[in-house]
Amino acid sequence: MTIAGYRYHDDTLPEAAITLEELELMKEATLLGDGDIAALRRSAPILEPQIDEILDVWYGFVGSKPFLVAHFSDAKTGAPIPEYMDRVRARFGHWIRDTAAAEYDEAWLRWQLEIGRRHHRVGKNKTDHVESTALIPLRYLPLLAQPIVDTLRPFLEADGDDRDAVDAMQNAWRKAVLLQATLWSHPYVKEGDY
Amino acid sequence: MTIAGYRYHDDTLPEAAITLEELELMKEATLLGDGDIAALRRSAPILEPQIDEILDVWYGFVGSKPFLVAHFSDAKTGAPIPEYMDRVRARFGHWIRDTAAAEYDEAWLRWQLEIGRRHHRVGKNKTDHVESTALIPLRYLPLLAQPIVDTLRPFLEADGDDRDAVDAMQNAWRKAVLLQATLWSHPYVKEGDY
Q1: Does B62 touch chain A if contact means CB atoms closer than 8 Å?
Q2: DSSP for residue B186
Q3: Is B163 in Cβ contact with A139 (below 8 Å)?
Q4: What percent of chain A is helix, strand and coil (3-state, nearest 5)?
Q5: Which structural domains are found in chain B, ordered by start?
Q6: What is the mean pLDDT of residues A113-141?
Q7: Which of A185, A170, A174, A81 is nearest to A140 (CA)?
Q8: What does the pLDDT average to over A21-29?
């Protein structure tokens, strides 16, 4: 199945603005190590059959907050744009898979920076040809890591793993999402300050 | 005891660049609610007698990472500046108390934005009259929330609370630190993009 606008592993994406060495330091700063990568990968088959339900929860959260749903809405009328939400949802579903796969290589880094541009005014709306808000304000990128990872808990528990194992998977997700939200912030930051 | 450069509740600080209404939306986005405020305040008397040990752990972490300790070091020689580290440490100790007090009012908001300026090139080094790096790169603000809150775990357990109660305190700390790191990011972000 082709997902519109999904470009992980697309060699025509711009070069990453940071190096793999810098990415390693970012992982180190947030304590994301090999144990977390293993825990993320353990979560993959647990989450796979639940992706639609997870998206329902996340969309339910965003849909319940007018200040968030605005960014999926028409800038003029304020009405949510269903096609926009659907297209983002398809990519978001694949994002769950990609986050659990935890391949922190050059292709992944380029794709994260592209996702960042799509949150920022340099790229928002373009992929989906909509006229929504100019950008998702920077403040919501790190903050939304919390509801994403909090609400993942019951889905991580679905295979009956014990509490320690679920904690390990959830904590690995926390680090992975925080790392990504930080990468997505790149286009918002003043030259030289990132 | 006077802590050099500590200015929470100082009316001469610049006005906050965001409103209390915006702060409420940020709390909502990161699911920081009344239960978390109660959990933060429950942690206060548990952490109070352990503040020095907590700072030892955090300074140990930073000290073990050359790319982090650089920001406490002389920009020319690269040598750590002990007086700078000591002055920041005294404020960091009080920051633990202030985070656990969880008073999200105007004075708190102004102080958070001042802390942000002191991480950014507009304010770094000035309070302590040092010549260290020009700024702490934006990327490390959200990322360092993770080791701060991870390493807090054994200290939150010190009073023998059960696992659910410790989880609640730790999760509240997670939200509180993420909220603050996000506020501290303000001076780094391009006009209109925060």
Answers
A1: no
A2: G
A3: no
A4: 60, 0, 35
A5: 20-188 (1.10.490.10)
A6: 98
A7: A185
A8: 98
